[in-house]
Amino acid sequence: MTESLRPNGEYEHANPYQGPHQHASSPVNPEWPPPPAQPPGNHATQPLPGPQPEPPHGGRPARRRGPAALLVAVAIVAAAVGGGTAYGIQELAGGDTVAAGSTSTNVVPSSQKGTVSGVAKAVSPSIVEINATSNAGSSTGSGVIITDDGEIITNNHVVSGASSVKVTTNDGKQYTAEVVGTDSKKDLALIKLKDAAGLKAATLGDSDGVGVGDQVVAIGSPEGLTGTVTSGIVSALDRDVTVSTDEGRQEQQQRQGGQWPFEFGGQQFNGDTGSSTTTYKAIQTDASLNPGNSGGALIDMNGNIIGINSAMYSATESSASAGSVGLGFAIPVNTVKADLPGLRAGASN
User: Fold this and answer.
1) Residue 104 is a catalytic residue
2) Residue 294 annotated to the active site
C-alpha cells in the first residue's frame, strides 16, 4: 500500500490524558470529549468530576473500527496475497472486469461467464461477413470490428486484389468498405467501413497468456453462414504455418471456392502455396473452421479476441466437400496489435 485511506490528522496525535505533565498546548484527539470547565485555582492535579474514560494499555485511546478501517484491512490483504484475492474481491463487488493489472477483460456478463452462449452473445455483434470481388471472381470471409466507426481486421487473403468490398454486420446492415492497409507476410489486412458509426468494437486480449487446453470460441461466416459459432480448445501454440503471399495464387484460390493453401511440417495442404510464401507463428485450435471463417475471431471465455482465424486443413481440394477436421490455425492477437500502426498508415506489402 502506498497510500493511507485515513483522513488527514486522524490517529496521529497522542492521548491528552497521558499524565498530569501533559503540555497545555498538546493537540486533542477529536474522538475524545473535551474535559469539563474547571473553576479558578490550582486544580491541575484534581480528578475531573463524573466517570472518567479509561485509556487502554499503552496510554492511547482505542481507534474506532468503522467501515473505513475495514476497507483499509481488506485492501492490505489484497495487496499482500496478489491478484487472485483482488480478483475475488472484484467479483464480490459485482464488477465485470478483472483486477487491475490483468491483461484480460471480462466482456461476458458475470452471470454468463465461462459459457459459449455468453461469449457468443457478447462478441457476435463485433464480427462481420466480408464479400470481396476481384477479376478472379468473388470470395467470402470474416472480419473483426476494432473501432466503433468501422475499422475491421481480417486476413490479407480475404481482400487481396479486391476491386470492391462489401461488409454485412451481425444485425444485417450492409456497408461498402475500402482497404486501408495490407501485410501479406502476416496475412493481415485493415479495412474501413464508409459512413459507419456506433458499432460495437471487440476487445483485443493478450495472446501471450493463452495456454494449451484453454477453451475457445470461433465466430465467422463459413460458406456465407453469417454469425456461425463453434467452440473447442487451444490444441497447440507457436505452430510455424507457411502461407502464400502471391496475389495471383490467392485469386486462384478464390476461384476454387475460398480455401486457403498453407504448409506445415514440410507438407502442403489445400493446394500449392507456390514459391512466394511467408511463415508466422500460429495458435492451433480444434474449434471447427471452414472456408469463410478466414479473418474471423478466436475468442477466450472472457470474450477477448486472442486470434484471427487464418487457415484450416481440409482433406479434400474441393470446397463443395470440404469440412473441418479439427485442425485450424489463428494469427495471435498480439501480432495483430503490433501490426496495426503500419496497417493504419496504409502499408501495402
Assistant:
1) no
2) yes
